Each structure stands twice: as C-alpha cells, then as structure tokens.
Amino acid sequence: MKPILAQELDIFLKRFDNFNGGEFRSIEILSPTNIIVTLSGQDGARAFDWVTIKLELNGVSDAKLLEGSKLFMLDMSDGISIINDNKHFAFGIGKCTTLSSLKNSICYIICSSLKYQEGSF
User: Fold this and answer.
1) 3-state class of 65 per DSSP?
2) Residue 60 dihedral angles phi and psi, to the nearest 5°
3) pLDDT tens per residue across span 83-105
4) Can you give the residue range of the structural domain that contains 30?
5) Residue 80 in contact with residue 28, Cβ under 8 Å?
6) Number of independent structural domains in the chain
C-alpha cells in the first residue's frame, strides 16, 4: 500500500475523477481502528481504464458504515470525497466540501492516515 499525503490528495482524486460513476465494492473492518474500503473507477493515468482501488484507513476515530449487502445500491454519480483538515482524513460518499457536510453522508470514515493499492478491475 502507498500512503496518500495531504498535499497529494487533490491529484489522487482528480486522477480517478472522485470515483464519479464508480462502484463501491466492499468495506472490510480489520480492527476498530483499521478499515479497508474497495472501490472501482476509471484511471485517468491509464487512458481511463477501469481499476480497483483499495483504501486503507488507519487510526479510525469516527465512522458511519453500511452493510455490505447495501453497497451495490449506492448512487455513486457524485463519487466520493476525501477531506484533510491537517489532523485527519475524512472519507465520505458524495460531493462534500466540509467535514460537517461529510458527516451527513450515508457512509463516512474519519481517520488519521490513508493508504491505497491499485488492482485490476
């Protein structure tokens, strides 16, 4: 897994177009403070080929999660948001620009660090 630094966050999200129109594949709880989210989306660095991305969220301090059986029903037309406030990363579904709007998302995770791994579709 490769770490996502705060200064690289916008580049990462732009590369995958915020996963607009992508798929939310799974949520895996490794421990109360470690969660892996699996998404698929189009990779702008690979001629928009579809890829699978695993996000590892470490140091989870707050979360609102969905059951795995409901993930396929999520509307991903607005993609995901990842916000950094210099202390934490905040992941959520939909277009969110503030931490308070992200906490109103159907699914969100607040964590201290974020890593990703690319895989085939």
Assistant:
1) coil
2) -65, 125
3) 999 899 999 999 999 999 999 99
4) 2-120
5) no
6) 1
Residue labelled with tokens 């490794």 = 30
- Listing from the earlier edge strand, what are the strands of the sheet with 62-64? 62-64, 108-111, 89-93, 80-84
Alpha helices in 1-121 (DSSP H): 9-15, 99-102
Give the pLDDT confidence score for residue 91 in this predicted structure.
97
At residue 63, the 3 state secondary structure works out as: strand
CB atoms within 10 A of CB 67: 7
Amino acid at 106: I
Averaged over successive runs of 10 residues, the pLDDT of the chain (121 residues) comes to 95 96 95 97 91 98 90 90 94 93 94 95 73
